[in-house]
Amino acid sequence: DTHIALAVIFDVPAGEDYKSYFPKFYAKVKAGTKDTLYYGFATCGNKVLCREGYTNAAGMLAHTAEVKDELEGMIKQIGKEKVKILCSGPPSELEKIKPHMDGRLPIKFVDLDAGSLLLNAFPKGCADTHVTILPEFIVPAGKVDEFKAGFPKFYAATKNGPGAAGCLYYGFGFSGDSMYCREGYKSAEDCMKHGADVKDIIDEPLKAVGAANFKLNVVGPAAELEKLKPKLAPRGAVFWELDAGSFWL
């Protein structure tokens, strides 16, 4: 898996209208670069997350230019201190993006591991209902190499287990002392199948970092999130409800 994934989070002040922006962005994206893979908004309380995927750095930069005016408008309305960006992809692609990013916005770049998997072809030209799971582990000082040594076990369990048929992408990445696992599944059921595939090995990294240093964000349609809540809510997961207008290009 070498795609560029972007999560842009807006912390919208109470009472501000933000949903009227969604159709404007969707229209621009559909008429724009063909290097867009998926695009959609998700909400959690008064926070909005834009989940985006691009074939490569050039596609992401083309998109940024296309929505510049709308984005400026939205940032002006809510304030730049209320915007956070997480961008993940192969280090060589991220290097192409870094010089072009707006220095006023806080952005975290996540270097995707070379072993990251793309297990099924991405859909095209249809509604996007896929589920993203994004765990973040704050790795204790001096333990990074130990964590990296565990990657092959997780990749093997992911591609060889029953969950592989419903897994779209799966890969680890680092940003400073934060280790992320970027995971996409066709449905909540597929996500749970993968959970069973790694059940015996997941406790090790969880124990090593401790509950206070583990965060979990889950993005997907409301109906899919409901199926995952019994399993993931006890782990402190934050659930983002995907807008029905989200799409695969």
Overall description:
- The chain contains nine helices and 13 strands.
- 35% of the residues lie in helices and 33% in strands.
- It has a ten-stranded mixed beta barrel, surrounded by seven helices.
- A hairpin with a 2-residue loop joins strand 9 and strand 10.
- It has 249 residues and is α+β, with helices and mostly antiparallel strands.
- Helix 2 packs parallel to helix 4 and helix 7 runs parallel beside helix 9.
In angstroms, what is the radius of gyration? 17 Å
Largest sheet: 10 strands, mixed, barrel
Kindly estimate the percentage of residues that lie in beta strands according to DSSP: 25-35%
Whole-Å distance between the termini? 18 Å
Spatial shape: globular
- Helix content range of the residues, please? 25-40%
Secondary structural class: alpha+beta
Low-confidence stretches: none
Order of helices and strands: EHEEHHEHEEEEHHEEHHEHEE
In order across it, which strands form the biggest sheet?
1-3-2-12-11-8-10-9-5-4
Q: Please tell me the overall pLDDT.
A: 95
Count the helices. How many?
Answer: 9
| Overall strand count | 13
